[in-house]
Amino acid sequence: MCGRFQAPDPEKDPELAKIIAAAKEKADHSGIAMKTAGKIFPTDTVPVLVPSEDPETPLAAIPMTWGFPGYFNAANPNAKPKPLINAKSETAGVLRTWKESLRSRRCVVPTAGFYEFKRAPGKKGASRAAEKYLFTARGEDVLFLAGIHKEFEKKPRPVEFFSILTMEADGDAISEIHHRMPVIVLKSELDEWFNGDLEKLFRREKAVALERSRTV
User: Which end of the chain has fewer surrounding CB within 10 Å, N or C?
Assistant: First the structure.
């Protein structure tokens, strides 16, 4: 799964930084608090990339809030619904919550890397995890995570939400820590993700080379 990620470093990709800066300026003008630095948590609003209508700029960043609105539990009506921050790639194409977004509203989340927790024996929950690791992709300045998005009616204005697609852990670096991981889209695969065969990314023959570092 993916429950936290690190915002991208603008110095690593000036072109991406320019796209994000333009989106932040528009967000600030509209009164939208968009986070562009540091650790990103569920319900944060961040710049997410979608295809641009401008042929000179293939991608555009728009503010999106992490986590589709959750469902109320009839058995516990007083409990606040948890945001749906992840969607399983194996079932997103058939489940009502995700399938239309996967078909026509794909996006990528630019990051410097994502976090996973190695839980201490007998303990539950990331907050009590013994070890936290940051995962980055070898040779990639920015790590793009595959996502899907949808607009929901909220007051005072509609809000665009996104969820990150996940898959079975691919490679020793991640599988030793967690059995799930985000679906990664390399920079060279962006056009394939937006317009091509999804199975090539969900079931790629060669795993993305991930590097991990223990962090706090």
Answer: C
Predicted confidence (pLDDT) per residue in 57-109, tens digit: 889 999 999 999 998 777 777 778 899 999 999 999 999 999 999 999 999 99
Under a CB-based contact definition with an 8 Å cutoff, are residues 12 and 112 in contact? yes
Place of tokens 């839980």: 119
pTM confidence score: 0.92
Which of the following CATH numbers is that of domain 5-68+81-215: 2.40.40.20, 2.40.50.180, 3.90.1680.10, 3.50.50.60?
3.90.1680.10
The total of other beta-carbon atoms located within 10 Å of residue 205's CB is 5
7-27 pLDDT, tens per residue? 999 999 999 999 999 999 999
Q: Are 161 and 65 in contact (CB under 8 A)?
A: yes
Give the separation between CA 200 and CA 198, rounded to whole angstroms: 5
Asked, as a colleague might, if the bond just before 10 is cis with ω within 30 of 0, I would say no
Give the whole-angstrom CA distance, residue 207 versus residue 184. Answer: 10
Please give the helix or strand (H or E) that residue 150 lies within, else none. Answer: strand 143-152
